[in-house]
Sequence to fold (329 residues):
Amino acid sequence: MLEWKKDGWKAALALAPMLILMAVFTFYPIVNTIITSFKYYEVDAKGIADYAGWGISAYFDPAYKSSMQAWEWGKEIPVLQDPTFWKSVGFTVLIAVVSVPLTIIIALLISVGLCSIKPLKGFFQTVFFLPYVTNGIAFGMVFASIFSYNGLINTMFNLTVNWIGDIPLSESVTDQTVALWAGIIVIITYTVWHGLAFKILVFVGGISGIDKQYYQAAQLDGASKWRVFRKITLPLLSPMVMYITITSLIGAFKAYSSIVAIYGETMGSGSDSQFMTAVGYVYSSFNQVTGAAQWQLLPKASASALVLFVLILIVTGLQMIYNKKRVHY
Fold:
């Protein structure tokens, strides 16, 4: 305590720049988002929006009826009562449920393979890590080119699948809508490939840190490679697996840039935004705040962001509870 009182000001001085940056660019936006989500604006017949107080109308409004096409002029559908929001959440959950386990399994298998070879190990680690340090939008555009109608996938496998809705006019096809299964395959493929880099790095570090005596003892006992992996490698990697699972779920719920890079800002081949994610819904609401009459969309965008935050918090908590007894430190 005496040392802290004596030198604490040095630590505070060293941390001050970072704390100031976090306060401006992290803490303030979070607090401001919470405050904005509870604001209420009324729009008059002239299209002028005025601040009208506080409320939860951005989240839920008992007066709203889903059967009404325009339940009140100038009002937006509350987030929790908006079918588009829940559709985007459902699509995001689908991406997470499919891509996260698949990415972890593939990354774990590649990591075990990398640790079992000596020649060119560093080279292969560098190759697998490249996607992590490369712009996601750029790679999304590459994937859009690969899955285009005249791209690599259709050419290589002699297919005529409409992956991203870019069928040339010469094909005499008027419907450019992408089938849901085709879009999911493209997005999952990109998500899995782009997510491998960081997971491989973590798993390779974890495997390298396991005491070799365990493997030597298993070798003396004549244990098979599958048994060694299941009884030694996987249990001792369980802390890394839990960390990767939680961070991957959070990342999957924040999916946005990859869909925009492949399908554009509409997040779909048409105007229905069939591949809109939860974060895409937040950006879509926020991007519409262009005039005075649209100010009600700002509380709605803030409310949807907070609802997404709560959903991620719940999923993360459940995941930590589920893995608590399955992690070996």
In short: The radius of gyration is 25 Å. Residues 2-37 form the longest helix (36 residues).
